[in-house]
Amino acid sequence: MTVVIGGLTIGNDLPFVLIGGPCQIESEAHALEMAAALVEMTRAAGIGLIYKSSYDKANRTSANAARGIGMARGLEILALGHEERGGQDCQHGQ
Predict the structure, then answer these.
(1) How far is residue 18's CA from residue 61's CA, in Å, rounded to a whole number?
(2) Beta strand 8-11 with 17-20: parallel, antiparallel or unpaired?
């Protein structure tokens, strides 16, 4: 069985694809810096990348802990990162 996400095809018998990113979007600068670092590392390693980060973390250990920057701002930041890559999914090594 395979799963296609953007331009990446994922399956047990296919090359490794990293799904990674910070647990929570802290800020625009942090998210873009982390995405750029992951792109650089995965390109160097010749593997695919799916960037992920949460804008609302409801599963915190304390009900009083910060949950994130919210859906509207979080989606803006994720879209900005996508635009900075020229609207391309991260598809290195394929």
Answers:
(1) 26
(2) unpaired
